Amino acid sequence: MGVSIISTTYNDSHFLPKALSSCLQQDIEKEIIIIDDCSTKPFDLDAQALVSQHGMRYIRHTKNQGLSAARNTGIATAKYDWIIPLDADDWFYPNAIKSLYEAKEGFEIICGSCSDGGIYVPAIAREPLSPALFKRENPLICSSLFTKEIWSRVGGYTVRNHAHYEDYNFWAKCFKAGARFKYIPVTVYNHTSRENSMLRQLQSRGDYFRKLATEGVFD
Which pTM does this prediction carry? Predict the structure, then answer.
């Protein structure tokens, strides 16, 4: 038993050495899968070295398909039953995955907190999950641990022809499908805020993308 870590990159592989090093520091049986979503920039040399030295799996899309498709590609090839994503510019705290994994009994999704200029505690820690909560906000963090079975049951991450709140929509679909969620008070990863990040670009139309994340799930 172990965990498959799925890290996606598109023209930001220069962040990967820190991300991948943080994956290697996790004290748990694991595999690390990197999905390059057809970057137009060369793959970072230090990241290449880590991939080669530590037997990580590198998969490159032949055309850009977006974050959801990249994650789906990685998860489809994962050998373990438990999955956790990590964006290229984020990094795990030591032994965070082990803490999530040890709390998995009886649950399909285990969530913690993250840091981003302070500790962000998601809504799942403050109130029970409900359709009303999902319609109001995304109650989980991105790098949460989940089963490959629940990913398959809900049809994976929704692929659209434009960027959207992929994680938000995925958690909503899992909740609708009856997944059992658990929060534990562990800081799992550090989220890197960037001016040109996809999330920052979507924030100007946040109301639209929040509605899109649950549209067709609870309505």
Answer: 0.93
